[in-house]
Write a structure and sequence with these properties.
The protein has about 375 residues and is an alpha/beta fold. The chain contains eleven helices and 15 strands. The chain has helices at about 35-50, 105, 130-140, 145-170, 175-215, 235-250, 250-260, 280, 285-305, 325-335, 375-385, and strands spanning about 1-10, 15-20, 25-30, 65-75, 80-90, 90-95, 100, 115, 220-225, 270-275, 275-280, 310-315, 340-345, 360-365, 365-370. The longest helix has about 40 residues, at about 175-215. The protein is globular, with a radius of gyration of 23 Å.
Length: about 375
C-alpha cells in the first residue's frame, strides 16, 4: 500500500496543502521548525487517529481555526481507498470512501504506517510503559481482533479500578460485582496476552535475522515477553485467562488494600536479549540502537505477514542519528518495497542509496513545494565533487 494523495486543512502550521506523493521515496527537506515533522505526523494521525507527539487533539488544529482536516487517498492491492479525519472541539470524525466510520477502531487499519523517530532509539532502555504503547499501537494496526480486545480490556480495567477504589474507602461492600468485573478483565486480558505473545514471537524471528545481518553474525537477538502469566499459557487465550483469574484470586486482598488492579497485561513488558544478556541493562549504546533498529525494521515484514501489504514508513530525522552501517541496512530493508517519507535539513550525509529516484519536497513555513529531483541531486553531486 502507499499514500497517493494528501490534503491538509488547518493542520498545525498548514493552512492548506494538497499534493501527490511517489510510491517510493519522498524526501521532505527544509530548515528546522518549518513543518516537516508536522506533515509526517499528519500521515500518522490519518492512519492511527491520534498523534505520537501530543495527547491533546487541540494541538493539531491550526491556531485560530475551529477544526483540522486530513484527507488521503490510499492505494491498495484491491484499489483506492479515500480516508478523511476531522478534528474539532466535538472530537474526531472519520470517513472511509465518503461513508462515516461508526467507530475509530473500525477505521484503523485502512492505512498502515510505521513511524521511526530519534526517540524510538530509546525503545530498548525506556520505560515498560513506552514498550507497551509501542506494541499496542503497532499490533492494533495489524489485527482488528487485537485492537478490539485491547479496547475492551482497558474499559473493563478502568471500571474495575474505580470499583476497587470504592471498596477501599468502604463506599460499597458488594464483592459480587467485583467478581463480574474481574472475569471481564481476565477474559479480555487473556486474549491480549495470547495475541501479544504470538506477534512478538513472529517479530522476534524477523528481528533476529536483521540484527544478525547488521552485526555480521556476531550477535544473537531474542525478544522475550515478560508477564505475570507463565509462558506456557502464552499461546492460548483460554489458558492465559485461567491463569489471570488465578492470579487475581491470589492478589485479591492486596488489591482491596491498595484500591487498584495489580495483575494484567497493563503491567507486562518486553525484554531484549543479546547474546543471553539484557541489552537494556548490560548493552552498549551501539547495541541498544542496533536492537531498536532491528525491531523497527522487523515491523515491516511482520505487518506484511499479518495484513498482506507493506506499510508506509515514516522516518523523522532518524537517518542523522544512525551511522553508515545502520543507514545501509535500513535503506536495504526498504528499497523498492516500502513507500517512505523522510525528513531532513540537508541531503548531505545521507547514504547515496536513498536518493536513487526520490520525490523531493521543500517545506517552508507551512508550505510544500515539489522540487526538480534531478536538478537537486545534480547540484549535490557537483558540490560533493568540488569538495
Amino acid at each position: 500500500m502507499y499514500l497517493k494523495h494528501l490534503e491538509l486543512r488547518n493542520y498545525r502550521n498548514y493552512a492548506k496543502v494538497s499534493t501527490d506523493f511517489s510510491p517510493q521515496i519522498n524526501v521532505l527537506i527544509g530548515s528546522n521548525a518549518q513543518g516537516k515533522t508536522n506533515l509526517l505526523e499528519s500521515v500518522y494521525v490519518l492512519a492511527i487517529t491520534r498523534s505520537h507527539r501530543s495527547n491533546n487533539d487541540r494541538d493539531l488544529v491550526r491556531f485560530g481555526a475551529d477544526f483540522a482536516r486530513i484527507d488521503g487517498r490510499v492505494s491498495r492491492k484491491l484499489g483506492n481507498t479515500d480516508l478523511r479525519l476531522v478534528i474539532s472541539s466535538q472530537g474526531k470524525r472519520a470517513k472511509v470512501n465518503n461513508l462515516d466510520a461508526p467507530k475509530l477502531s473500525a477505521y484503523m487499519g485502512k492505512l498502515n504506517v510505521i513511524l521511526f523517530a530519534p526517540e524510538d532509539l530509546n525503545l530498548v532502555k525506556g520505560s515498560p510503559a513506552l514498550r507497551r504503547r509501542f506494541i499496542d499501537m503497532e499490533f492494533g494496526q495489524m489485527s482488528p481482533a487485537y485492537l478490539a480486545n485491547l479496547t475492551m480490556y482497558k474499559k473493563a480495567l478502568k471500571q474495575r479500578n474505580a470499583y476497587l477504589k470504592q471498596l477501599k474507602f468502604h463506599q460499597t461492600k458488594n464483592l459480587t460485582f467485583l467478581d463480574v468485573l474481574t472475569d471481564q478483565v481476565a477474559q479480555y486480558g487473556g486474549a491480549v496476552i495470547a495475541a501479544r505473545a504470538k506477534l512478538l514471537q513472529d517479530m522476534g524471528k524477523f528481528a533476529a535475522v536483521i540484527h544478525s545481518d547488521i552485526t555480521r553474525g556476531g550477535e544473537v537477538l531474542q525478544l522475550r515477553y515478560v508477564s505475570q502469566v507463565h509462558d506456557d499459557a502464552f499461546g492460548d487465550a483460554d489458558a492465559a485467562t485461567a491463569r489471570l483469574q488465578d492470579l487475581f484470586a491470589k492478589s485479591r486482598q492486596r488489591e482491596l488494600d491498595q484500591g487498584t488492579s495489580l495483575v494484567g497485561p497493563h503491567r507486562d513488558d518486553v525484554q531484549f536479549i543479546v547474546n543471553d544478556r539484557d541489552v537494556a541493562t548490560f548493552g552498549s549504546q551501539g547495541q541498544q540502537r542496533t536492537t531498536a533498529l532491528a525491531v523497527k525494521l522487523a515491523e515491516i515484514d511482520l505487518m506484511k505477514q499479518e495484513t498482506g501489504e507493506y506499510p508506509v514508513l515514516l522516518l523523522d530525522d532518524v537517518l542523522s542519528e544512525l551511522d553508515d552501517n545502520r543507514q545501509t541496512h535500513l535503506l536495504r530493508a526498504i528499497q523498492d518495497k516500502v513507500q517512505t517519507f523522510l525528513t531532513t535539513t540537508s541531503l548531505d550525509g545521507i547514504a547515496r542509496e536513498i536518493i536513487q529516484e526520490p520525490a523531493i519536497f521543500h517545506v517552508d513555513d507551512g508550505t510544500l513545494t515539489r522540487m526538480d529531483a534531478d536538478a537537486v541531486l545534480h547540484d549535490r553531486g557537483s558540490a560533493s565533487a568540488q569538495t
